[in-house]
Design a protein that fits this description.
alpha+beta; DNA polymerase, domain 1; 5-stranded antiparallel β-sheet; 14 helices; globular; disordered C terminus; DNA-binding
DNA sequence: TCTGGGGTCCTAGGACCC
DNA sequence: TCTGGGGTCCTAGGACCC
């Protein structure tokens, strides 16, 4: 544990709604609700004026309308939010190299590496006040609430204590006394389900949680969570502020105003989403091996199906084919309210980088396309080989609309691997016999 | 017509390998 | 001819966060 309150948590107040009020003066001082405006939309952010009427994040827009009919209901202008966010994050990074954004409107900053004379409470307090002022300047008037503490957990709790436009510093040594009377839901990771389990065990406050043994907590909420709660209840948190975290998955999903029942339509929508996912993968130089679809049925039961390729892909056709194949396994006869496609198992290299001397090999493995003498044979059960004028390629996997081929060259018995949609024109000659299914 | 979208992390079971 | 564990990968689902 740190001995100084050098972890800072900054949270922009009612962020989306505040940006709207900043950009449209007629909305200032009035209730503003940003979120989905369709029949199944939910509230992303409510201005403080709207919160007075009980409008909250994650509430259905329908309910928000009934609580506050005269509010302005807006869909998001994410470009503007990203821009404001960037201005703030840039400011924070100018102050310390250790900035960890949690979302567009929130970040941790480690002051241990900031240029400060010391980390005394008075020093960091003055610093944070000045930082809040500078946030106002770089954003054209947005306010932020800031918390300072000896850990991420405490800094985050602190930033919540004086909202909006407030600052709270928790002096070293006072953490446990601060937490004890609080409800267990102040602990990150304690949501409705965990809270209810604890409540049934008679645990409501952090003080009560602190009195429970580690074994009992693990029994109640599982291993990882149990250990986490045990320590956080004692304000023990040594998680570092980590500036750049690599993405682990990329996904797109959509909820439709009326339930879908037409499979063709669903396939088309999945294909479009697959294209968006693949485009984002390519934009960030990523590719992934596991494709997952998400399907929410009319009754809100949510299903997922996934399939893992032998090698990473960023191809629209491959993701779309796989997604379609996965949908085929599901019974959607009752109607579908949400469809989604995601790719995980990400690699930040493009797959060719896997192999040494890649450039050369790539040159030697041009388009598989126009190879005249393609044939395919089975060497052993499950081991199919394609012969081409370029050499051999092993069929690693075929099914669900995708075929994966590993090339073999004289220099590299285990050459590059690629996946193709089975109706990719480049691959048509390579298709395995049609699957009976 | 209650219940978004983009993520992360964890768990549990089965397959498979040694 | 009967009974192992451990480790890793994959899949499905769930909780949680903003």
């Amino acid at each position: 544990m740190r001995t100084s309150s050098s972890v800072l948590h900054l949270d922009l107040d009612a962020f989306f709604a505040s940006v709207e009020q900043r950009d449209k003066p007629s909305l200032r001082g009035k209730p503003v609700v940003v979120g989905g405006v369709g029949g199944r939309g939910v509230v992303a952010t409510a201005s403080y004026e709207a919160r007075k009427y009980g409008v909250r994040s994650a509430m259905s827009t329908r309910e928000a309308r009934s609580r506050c009919p005269h509010a302005a209901f807006l869909t998001g202008r994410f470009h503007a939010y990203r821009e404001a966010s960037l201005a703030v994050m840039t400011l924070l990074r100018s102050v310390s190299p250790l900035v960890e954004p949690l979302s567009l409107d929130e970040a941790f900053v480690d002051l241990a590496l900031a240029e400060l004379p010391d980390l005394e409470v008075e020093t960091v307090t003055a610093f944070a006040e000045e930082l809040r002022q500078r946030v106002r300047e770089v954003t054209g008037g947005l306010t932020a609430s800031v918390g300072l503490g000896t850990s991420k957990f405490i800094a985050k709790v602190a930033s919540d204590l004086d909202k909006p436009d407030g600052l709270t510093v928790v002096p070293p040594g006072t953490e446990v006394a601060l937490l004890r009377p609080m409800h267990v839901t102040v602990i990150p990771g304690v949501g409705p389900a965990t809270s209810e389990r604890l409540r049934r065990a008679g645990i409501h406050t952090v003080a009560e949680l602190e009195s429970v043994s580690l074994e009992e907590l693990v029994r109640l909420v599982g291993n990882a969570h149990g250990h986490g709660l045990f320590h956080l209840a004692r304000a023990e948190d040594d998680r570092a502020v980590v500036p750049e975290r690599e993405a682990k998955s990329v996904s797109v999903e959509g909820t439709y105003d009326t339930d879908l029942s037409d499979r063709r339509l669903m396939e088309g929508l999945l294909a479009r989403q697959a294209g968006e996912v693949a485009e984002r993968l390519r934009k960030h130089g990523l590719s992934g091996r596991t494709v997952t679809i998400k399907v929410r049925l009319h009754d809100f039961t949510t299903l997922s199906r996934s399939s893992t390729l032998a090698s990473p892909t960023d191809s629209t056709a491959v993701v779309a084919r796989l997604a379609r194949g996965l949908l085929a396994d599901l019974d959607t006869s009752g109607g579908v309210r949400l469809l989604g496609v995601g790719v995980s198992g990400l690699a930040d290299w493009i797959q060719e980088d896997l192999f040494g001397e890649t450039a050369d090999q790539d040159d030697e493995l041009p388009e598989v396309v126009d190879l005249p003498s393609v044939r395919r044979q089975t060497w052993a059960p499950g081991m199919d080989v394609v012969h081409t004028t370029m050499g051999r390629g092993w069929v690693w996997g075929a099914g669900r609309g995708v075929v994966t081929v590993r090339f073999e060259t004289a220099e590299t018995p285990a050459g590059p691997v690629r996946s193709y949609a089975d109706d990719d024109p480049h691959l048509s000659a390579w298709l395995p016999p049609a699957d009976p299914e």
